Amino acid sequence: MSDIILKEIKGKVAILTLNRPEKLNALNYKLNDTLLTLLDEIELDNNIRAIIITGAGERAFSAGGDIHEFTRSVEKGPLIAVKEFCQRGQSMTARLEAYPKPIIAAVNGLAYGGGCEITEAVHLAIASDKAIFAKPEINLGIPPTFGGTQRLPRLAGRKHALQYLLTGDTFTPEKAHEMGLVNMVVPHNELLVKAIELAERIIYHSPLAAARIITAVTRGINTTISEGLLIEQEQFARMAATEDVHEGLNAWIDRRQPVYKGV
Q1: Which member of 26, 117, 192, 219 has the greatest number of CB atoms within 10 A?
Q2: What is the CATH number of the domain that holds 242?
Q3: Measured between alpha carbons, how far apart are the two ends of the chain, in Å?
């Protein structure tokens, strides 16, 4: 696999590092496609139970789309630009959002545009106190294209989101936490440690139960409550047929730690 994304395994956690520090980890097409390929591989690897995504270098998580590259797509006309840039980015963030294993963004610096949209899409996010966020696409005369007009309002509320979507202003990690974009803000030198600790607290539990929870939340959040409850029942029914549910129940009754096999 290309070193445009570095992959490191720590126990049952995969750390994926966006590795274009000289370009502030801008999301060119190769990086986008490589991330999707790695996600496909990791999904099939039962030894990996969670993923952390971070950025290389001290300056950026990701500064967003590669402007030089997508400008060439725009020059080819709207149909090509939508296919090469917009659809590619939306496919990536949709994959992150619905991924069956927990994904945590460890936001170590600039998270602009597509970098912010990755943060919006993943299941959990921890920000360094040196992180900075922005929705700067309006400065280029375009709306966000990787899901930012849809996910940020759902996380932060319409007025909070529109303030940053319409101005392009930066906002602090504390503001990102207040709006629900990140789960916590930590000292910069503790970022990966805290992300790994969070991942380990999650993977203590059944991986099948985690996948069912992610699916129920992802599918249900944009439906009515009655439809969401049916999705919840469906996910419970899928879980009830597994060995993990019996192990979890028996371990609780026996007052012992469960040992999940993921089947």
Answers
A1: 117
A2: 1.10.12
A3: 29
Provide the 8-state DSSP code for 100. Answer: S
E strand or H helix that includes residue 126: strand 124-128
pTM: 0.95
CA angle 19, 80, 87 (to 5 degrees): 55
Among 213, 202, 221, 204, CA closest to 238:
213
Name the residues annotated as catalytic.
117, 137
Structural domain span for residue 168: 5-203
Do 184 and 211 fall into the same domain?
Answer: no
Q: Is 241 exposed, middle or buried (0-12, 13-18, 19+ CB in 10 A)?
A: exposed
- Give the total number of structural domains in the chain: 2
Considering the domain architecture, whether residues 141 and 109 belong to the same structural domain is answered as yes
Integer angstrom CA distances of residue 201 from 86, 205, 262: 35, 8, 16
**Structure confidence by residue, pLDDT tens digits, 199-256:** 999 999 999 999 999 999 999 998 999 999 999 999 999 999 999 999 999 999 999 9
